[in-house]
UniProtKB/TrEMBL annotation:
Organism in which the protein naturally occurs: Pseudomonas straminea
InterPro entries in the cross-refs: UPF0167
Similarity-based family: Belongs to the UPF0167 family.
Record's protein name: CbrC family protein
Length: 179
């Protein structure tokens, strides 16, 4: 029986970005025969060979392996001090992105961006041409980057641009590998 693939609110293009490979196998978490194997980051002591999207979507993989798909310390503005004002996102949103949302592949440590007080959706990898089309929305994210660095950004090489979109207002945000 074929089951519909789960969707991820904060990572709507996860299957198009090849973070899941179509490969038959047994999920190390649920023990079910599956056709989709996760290929993205997973931060845990024990690294399973095969995780299916269903175990990621329902949080069972993160619970079973005591791991995270996105590091909470890489959420923009998040602080390990629970009383810090930057932690206004709330535990449920932090758990959604860390425990139930596939990560994205980055040359360096990825960062999950925030806008309108909400976690953004990761849209995909972008280069200079895509960034140029969105330049008015990305002004704040581009202000500390040299024009030469922005021109060197590539969707499939280093340095890479990582495009996010606000779930509330639709504004795009940009993270890069560094300057």
């Amino acid at each position: 029986m074929t089951q519909d693939l789960p969707t991820f609110r904060l990572h709507p293009n996860v299957y198009q970005l090849d973070l899941f490979e179509r490969e038959a196998g047994t999920c190390a978490c649920c023990g079910e025969q599956r056709d989709w194997k996760y290929q993205g980051p997973f931060y845990a002591i024990q690294k399973p060979d095969y995780l299916c999207p269903w175990c990621i979507a329902d949080g069972s993989a993160a619970r079973y392996y005591e791991g995270q798909f996105n590091d909470e310390l890489c959420i923009e503005g998040w602080e390990p001090d629970p009383s810090a004002s930057a932690n206004a996102l709330g535990e449920e949103l932090i758990a959604e992105v860390c425990d139930r949302t596939p990560g994205y592949l980055a040359w360096q440590q990825g960062e999950w961006l925030v806008h309108c007080g909400q976690l953004c959706q990761f849209i995909g990898y972008v280069g200079a041409a895509e960034i140029e089309q969105l330049r008015p929305q990305l002004t704040g994210d581009l202000q500390d980057l040299s024009p030469a660095y922005v021109q060197a950004l590539s969707a499939d090489d280093s340095p890479t641009g990582y495009l996010f979109r606000c779930v509330q207002c639709g504004t795009h945000r940009l993270h890069t590998d560094g300057t």
